[in-house]
Amino acid sequence: MLTIFMLNCQSDSVKGAIKLSPKIFKDSIISNGAQVVDVRTPKEFHIDRIENAVNIDYFSENFTDSISLLNTKKPVFIYCRSGKRSTNSIPMFKKAGFKYVYELEGGFLNWKKESLKSISK
Q1: What is the pLDDT of residues 33-85, one digit of tens each?
Q2: Residue 57's domain is classified under what CATH number?
Q3: Is residue 10 part of a domain?
Q4: pTM
Q5: In CA terms, which of 24, 26, 30, 92 is 20 to 30 Å from 117?
Q6: Which residue intervals of the chain are DSSP H helices?
């Protein structure tokens, strides 16, 4: 089912990930039971986040070790506040062995702009 969504997304060949619009990102994580990783700080994560996301802080000194604990055989869907940290983290996910990396275009700010469901504290 993911291949249907890929027709409506942008590939970032430099970083090796596919950027998905908020709607397609949402549909993809629901239909695939995906691994969703929020690379924002724990403080940001606890205020508001996408349901079922795990928090792995991009600024943590253990970031690379933490992402290597995820299942590299399954696609991973990543996001941050605006897209900068998630974009910068893509090479680390690829180096850890992830073949399929999907990024939320415009980050969580874009998700909220589209009024998609999140978990707020």
Answers
A1: 789 999 999 999 999 999 999 999 999 999 999 999 999 999 999 999 999 99
A2: 3.40.250.10
A3: no
A4: 0.86
A5: 92
A6: 2-6, 22-32, 42-47, 63-67, 84-95, 107-113
